[in-house]
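sry for the spam today, last one i promise. struct tokens for design, 405 residues
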């Protein structure tokens, strides 16, 4: 199927846009504990209307970043369709932000908490100037981040149409109706839930799964464990696609790490997006929502149509299917009391054969202390070298394991 690339020129006129009001739960300060409902404008303004702008994007490990200019400096923002609005991390310069109140936020593991909400300083993305953009302030995660802020799905809920094309390294953004109407592809409808897009895909024959379209998640597909259990109960076809069941945890949200439980490793014959099929897909279950992640963009572009609430997938090949054959995940590390721990490890992994087990806490690597999860993530591993891990197991005993990276 041939793709038609759209390159746009816009008009430099200013317009006020229709305001969108969202109700947030604000907690009163000091000793007042009674919750009250307030509203404020979560709208943002753009420096142009009747525009179509082609904005360069950066792709790293499947994730999508844009370079923006704000307050005279260049910054990197993550495009995350799994976030209902913008996001920054606690500990950033609070003087740069206008405080708006508090909001109840949900993370990938469905944990919720009350967090601050701020208005970001104006920033320029492409030739567009964004003013009044709203962001939640979340605790800084223990995972390494390569960006300064998140742009959420409110970018599109605002009424902007978009095409994300990772092969061309571009985001086409427009407020014009009909720009992408003649483009071919495979449509699915989505519904907004917590202001983010949920749609249906089919992981098994005669079964559908509600998934979040989440470009902040790398994996092409992750399946909610409860949803999987329902499908497995109904169909023998599901059981034939199970590779392994183990105990562990692997999903790290902005507010929590999922609790340890049964993880199911799947090798799907096909994963259907409308009439398009992704073949030979490795996936894993999670306690959070099922998700279609940014890896889908390795195989085609996505058009977001917020008026019709429609996502159109445009494969880079000319077929109605593509073989994914992604490498299965066999080990994951998670934060545990601020230390790095083995979230899960499959029996096929060489570290398992060397003695590493789920729940082991990493104390030292090649004699160097590893005091935090972040220190573990920063450790300069080199492929092909052997490393000596000193681990503390769940019984409290130390052990030494040699692993080749």
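last one done:
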């Amino acid at each position: 199927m041939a793709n038609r690339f759209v390159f746009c020129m816009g008009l430099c006129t200013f317009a006020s846009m229709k305001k969108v009001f969202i109700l947030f739960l604000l907690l009163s300060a000091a000793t007042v504990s009674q919750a009250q409902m307030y509203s404020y404008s979560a709208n943002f303004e753009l420096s142009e209307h009747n525009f179509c702008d082609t904005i360069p994007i950066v792709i790293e490990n499947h994730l999508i970043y844009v370079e923006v200019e704000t307050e005279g400096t260049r910054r990197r923002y993550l495009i995350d369709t799994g976030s209902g609005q913008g996001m920054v991390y606690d500990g950033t310069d609070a003087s740069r932000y206008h405080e708006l109140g508090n909001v109840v936020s949900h993370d990938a593991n469905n944990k919720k908490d009350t967090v601050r909400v701020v208005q970001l300083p104006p920033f320029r993305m492409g030739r567009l100037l964004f003013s009044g953009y709203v962001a939640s302030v979340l605790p800084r995660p223990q995972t390494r981040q390569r960006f300064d802020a998140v742009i959420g799905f409110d970018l599109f809920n605002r009424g902007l149409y978009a095409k994300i094309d990772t092969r061309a390294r571009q985001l086409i953004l427009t407020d014009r109706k009909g720009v992408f109407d003649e483009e071919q592809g495979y449509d699915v409808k989505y519904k907004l839930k917590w202001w983010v897009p949920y749609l249906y895909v089919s992981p098994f024959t005669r079964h559908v799964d509600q998934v979040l379209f989440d470009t902040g998640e790398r994996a092409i597909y992750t399946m909610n464990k409860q949803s999987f259990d329902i499908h497995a109960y109904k169909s023998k076809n599901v059981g034939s696609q199970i590779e392994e069941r183990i105990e562990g945890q692997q999903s790290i949200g902005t507010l929590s790490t999922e609790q340890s439980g049964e993880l199911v490793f799947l090798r799907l014959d096909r994963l259907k997006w409308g009439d398009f099929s992704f073949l030979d897909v490795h996936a894993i279950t999670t306690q959070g929502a099922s998700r279609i992640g940014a890896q889908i963009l390795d195989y085609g572009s996505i058009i977001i149509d917020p008026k019709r609430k429609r996502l159109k997938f445009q494969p880079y090949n000319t077929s109605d299917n593509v073989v994914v054959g992604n490498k299965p995940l066999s080990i994951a590390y998670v934060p545990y009391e601020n230390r790095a721990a083995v979230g899960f490890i499959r029996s096929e992994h060489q570290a398992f054969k060397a003695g590493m087990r789920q729940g082991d806490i990493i104390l030292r690597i090649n004699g160097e202390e590893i005091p935090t999860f972040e220190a573990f993530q920063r450790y300069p591993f080199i492929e092909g070298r052997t490393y000596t891990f000193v681990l503390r197991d769940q019984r409290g005993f130390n052990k030494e394991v040699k692993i080749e990276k």
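DSSP finds five helices and 34 strands in the chain. ok im logging off now
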